[in-house]
Structure formats: structure tokens, C-alpha cells
Specification:
The chain is an alpha+beta fold. Among the domains are: 116 residues, Uridine Diphospho-n-acetylenolpyruvylglucosamine Reductase, domain 3 (2-Layer Sandwich); 110 residues, Alpha-Beta Plaits; 86 residues, 2-Layer Sandwich (Alpha-Beta Plaits). 33% of the residues lie in helices and 20% in strands. Helix 7 runs antiparallel to helix 12. The longest helix is centred in the C-terminal third of the chain and has 21 residues. It is globular. The structure holds flavin-adenine dinucleotide. Flavin-adenine dinucleotide binds next to strand 3, helix 4, strand 9 and helix 11.
């Protein structure tokens, strides 16, 4: 049995699973691309155990797939080819909290929401947040450089990683940056591991930076008349306030969320697009400025209607209009694209993408939403109920090159925050030059000379 193939020297029997239902569960992520087919699932409890496993895998040899909360949307944690899945579920401990440095040292399997709660309990704030925070791991967030709804103010996960412990694909333990704010001593390898999608090695521990919490958050949802008005309203708002979140979603998204989740519509007026703005409502002057901006945008005809939260509960309900979209549309097996351009290019991007979608997806329902404050839009094509899944995916795949060519023409990204994994792997050249890809492959070969780390992800 496989467990005798060296694994029993490293793990206790209860740290290894090989039953069919576990293989299926841990062999796939939220993207569900491909059929899960791992050899075994292991649950290490320490960095040293991970190191022993990597050394064994290099000799055996077998491949390893790092597995966090499996909420990834690019197939990065899929194990379809007899790999050993390395789940961080049992490396879920907070090891230290330092009030002076405002840093948390934790294992990679700590759930994102757990870190947010720990910060809040200490009157601090961990700002990386998104709909899957209740399941995703800090290790997975770092491996994908996760973004989410607060990037417009606080940036990506990368900004909050003060230190990392990693086990490279060749089995070395590296302690990177030690939580330092300043450290000008050459290449910062920490940043190489952030966003590397488990292709260079394992992230086993992290030191995460916390900050002051925002005060008196208010949420406003505005109904917008057309694409051109989105940007005009966006600019008017940004001129007057520094939002903590600035999100866009289309009317169909609102319809589906309200139907599926039983949430009330934000207001009766129908609008083709909606903007959600969260901001620190810290004084009467701020509130007046926001209301004045709203009035101006309404007078210009950009904004059709709007609502501002009057309580924390109402703010939460308004947020659900945006946060619950992903889950609500999962019933329609959506084909997802996660695209980014510079904010200044959003109008031309939206206009050209709209034409492309109308021309090539006339039979499909297409849903827009995204983090417009940082130039990131999610394009979701919903599968018609009577269409076979494979036929649907093939039809969407045919249009991909056109969408990605448009992104490339605008110097954008074909994967803003979901990573490359297997789903975007064949399209990497739309966002990275041949030389860049060659450098990335050389780096992979250096850290993972036998190619045991997450094979087939990011590159072929
Ligand atoms: C409803 C929903 C909403 C989402 N919204 C957002 C959003 O707004 N913004 C955003 O950025 N993402 C979003 N995501 C995607 C996803 O939640 C993120 O990519 C998240 O960071 C993945 O974390 P995870 O722990 O689930 O990682 P997994 O899915 O388990 O793994 C992701 C990748 O990281 C690797 N990995 C995992 N753990 C480690 C480790 N310890 N060491 C090395 N490599 C590792 C895996 O091999 C894989 O390649 C959303 C997903 C869902 C389902």
C-alpha cells in the first residue's frame, strides 16, 4: 500500500487518507476543472514534516499538490494525475501575536476569516477580504496573491506579508524577511513565493501585518445609467472621498442574487449597472460631500437612484448584493474570466468587450461584476440549462483568444487575482512576454529541479 512507500516514516496513519471520497474531495478545488485523481492526501503538522515529505517526493519520485481551502478559481489545487495532495488543514495555528509590531505569526492553514477576527479582537484590522474568506487559507491567499474587495484602499495580500517560512521544491527551509519593515539586503525572495501558486515550494508559516481599522463605514449603492456614466460617477466619487471599496455589478447580477438569496432590491428603479461604494463616514462634512456628489451625478443623469446604509445591518445587506453573486451564479456553471486593465482604460475596455460579447455570445447570458476601483472585472458566461457542459466550455474557449487579445492590446492581465493554475495556463503569453516566461521557468527549475511541485500549473 502507498502509505508504506516512505510516507509512514513521516506521518502517523491518521495523517494520510486514501479512501475514494477523500481523494475526490481533496483532489479538486472550487473551479472543478478535470476529474480528481490523487494518489493520497497527507496532513502535515509542521514545517519539518513538509520538508521530510519534499525530500521523499524528490527520491520516490512523486509529485505534490499544495492544498489550502480549495476555493481557488483557476484549478491551481486540482490533483488529476496521481499526485500526493498536501493539505494544510492541520497547520492552522496562530503561533504568535505581537502587539507592538502589530504582526501575527501563523501557520499556512489558518483561515483568512480567523485572522480577520483575531485582528478585530485586538482593535486592529486585516484588510484582505472576499466572499470566500470563511474557507480560504492564509497560505492559499499568499500563493495566489489574493485581492478582493478592499484592494482599492489596502492593496493585495502581498502588501500584508511581512515574513514567510517556505520549503522549496528541493527540500530546503527558507525563513524570508523575518517580519522586517526595512530590509535592503538583496533579492526579496519572499515576493517570489507570493503568487507562485505552489510551483516553487510550500508556504508553511507567515508573518502577517495588521493595521488600524477603518472607522464608521457606510455603504452606498448607486444605479448607473450606462457604461460612460460608470466612469464619470467613479471619478466624481474618487475626487471627493477615498473609498475602502468600489465595486461594480450588472442588473442581471442583482436579479440573480435577490432571487437566490431572498435579499431585497436596493431600490425599485431598474438600472443597467450598479456601483457599491464603501467609505469612512467619519464626519458630517464627509457625509455632506458624498451627498452633494450623489446629487451632482443624479443631475447629470449618470445616477438613476441610490441608497446609503443607515445602520451596520443595512450596510451588510447592501454588501450581500455584491458578495453573494459568485455563490448565486454557481448553479449556472459559469465560465469565468478575471480580467484587469488600468482604470483609465476601463471605458474603452468595456465598450470593446461589450461588442465582442454581443457578437460571439448572443445565446448566452453574460454577467459582469468586479472590483472596478482597481481595474478588475469578472466576466461570467452562464451555461444554458439545456446545453451539455463540454459543448458550453468549448464554445467559451473559442472566444477566449479574442477576449485575451483585447486584454493584451490594452496591456492588461488575463488573470487579475485568481492566478493561472491550469485554466489560464495556455493563455499566459497574452500577459507575459516569451522572455518573462523563460525567466519564470528558469526560476522554477532552480527551486524545484525535479519538477515535483504542482506540475502542470502555471506552465505546461
Ligand atoms: C465565492 C468566491 C469568491 C472569491 N473571491 C475572490 C476575490 O474577490 N479575490 C480573489 O483574489 N480571489 C477570490 N476567490 C478565489 C480564492 O478564494 C482565492 O484564490 C484564495 O486565495 C484561494 O485560497 P485557498 O486557501 O482556497 O487556496 P487553494 O484553492 O487551496 O489553492 C490555491 C493555489 O495556491 C496553492 N497553495 C495553497 N496553499 C499553499 C501553500 N500553503 N503553499 C504553497 N501553495 C499553496 C495551491 O496549490 C493552488 O495553486 C474567490 C473564490 C470563491 C469561491
Amino acid at each position: 500500500m502507498f502509505i508504506d512507500n516512505g510516507l509512514s516514516d513521516i506521518f502517523r496513519p491518521e495523517q494520510v487518507l486514501t479512501d475514494q471520497s477523500s481523494l475526490e474531495k481533496y483532489g479538486q478545488d472550487w473551479s472543478q476543472v478535470g476529474a480528481p485523481n490523487p494518489l493520497a492526501i497527507v496532513f502535515p503538522e509542521s514545517t519539518e514534516q513538509v520538508q521530510s515529505l519534499v525530500k521523499l517526493a524528490n527520491k520516490a519520485p512523486f509529485s505534490l499538490v499544495p492544498s489550502g481551502g480549495r476555493t481557488g478559481l483557476s484549478g491551481g489545487a486540482m490533483a488529476t494525475n496521481q499526485e500526493v495532495v498536501v493539505s494544510f488543514e492541520r497547520m492552522n495555528k496562530v503561533l504568535d501575536f505581537n502587539k507592538v509590531d502589530r504582526q501575527v505569526h501563523c501557520q499556512a492553514g489558518v483561515i483568512t476569516q480567523q485572522l480577520q477576527t483575531l485582528a478585530a479582537d485586538n482593535q486592529l484590522f486585516y484588510p484582505v477580504d472576499f466572499a470566500s474568506s470563511g474557507s480560504s487559507h492564509i497560505g492559499g491567499n499568499i500563493a495566489t496573491n489574493a485581492g478582493g474587495i478592499k484592494v482599492v484602499r489596502y492593496g493585495l495580500t502581498r502588501n500584508w506579508v511581512a515574513g514567510l517560512t517556505v520549503v522549496t521544491g528541493s527540500g530546503e527551509i527558507l525563513d524570508l524577511n523575518h517580519g522586517l519593515v526595512k530590509n535592503a539586503t538583496g533579492y526579496d525572495l519572499r515576493h517570489l513565493f507570493i503568487g507562485s501558486e505552489g510551483t516553487l515550494g510550500f508556504i508553511t508559516e507567515a508573518t502577517m501585518q495588521l493595521t488600524n481599522p477603518p472607522k464608521n463605514l457606510s455603504v452606498m449603492v448607486l444605479g448607473i445609467s450606462d457604461v460612460a456614466s460608470i466612469m464619470k460617477t467613479f471619478q466624481a466619487l474618487k475626487k471627493n472621498i477615498e473609498p475602502t471599496a468600489l465595486e461594480l455589478f450588472s442588473s442581471d447580477s442583482v436579479k440573480i442574487v435577490c432571487e437566490h438569496k431572498g435579499i431585497p432590491r436596493p431600490f425599485d428603479t431598474e438600472a443597467p449597472y450598479y456601483l457599491l461604494i464603501e467609505f469612512e463616514n467619519d464626519s458630517e462634512a464627509t457625509e455632506s460631500l458624498v451627498l452633494e456628489t450623489f446629487e451632482r451625478c443624479s443631475n447629470e443623469g449618470w445616477v438613476l437612484d441610490g441608497v446609503m446604509s443607515q445602520s451596520e445591518q443595512q450596510a451588510k445587506t447592501l454588501w450581500r448584493l455584491r458578495e453573494d453573486i459568485s455563490e448565486s451564479i454557481s448553479h449556472y456553471s459559469p465560465y469565468k474570466n478575471d480580467l484587469a486593465v488600468k482604470v483609465s482604460k476601463i471605458p474603452v475596455f468595456l465598450e470593446r468587450l461589450d461588442q465582442l460579447v454581443e457578437e460571439h455570445y448572443p445565446k448566452f447570458q453574460v454577467l459582469w461584476y468586479g472590483h472596478i476601483g482597481d481595474g478588475n472585472l469578472h466576466l461570467n458566461i452562464l451555461k444554458p440549462a439545456d446545453m451539455e457542459h463540454d459543448v458550453f466550455v468549448e464554445a467559451c474557449n473559442k472566444v477566449n483568444p479574442l477576449v485575451f487579445k483585447l486584454v493584451k492590446d490594452l496591456d492588461g492581465s488575463i488573470s487579475a487575482e485568481h492566478g493561472v493554475g491550469t485554466l489560464k495556463r495556455d493563455y499566459l503569453a497574452y500577459s507575459r512576454s516569451d522572455s518573462e516566461i523563460a525567466y519564470m521557468q528558469s526560476l522554477k527549475a532552480m527551486f524545484d529541479p525535479n519538477g515535483i511541485m504542482n506540475p502542470g500549473k502555471l506552465f505546461k
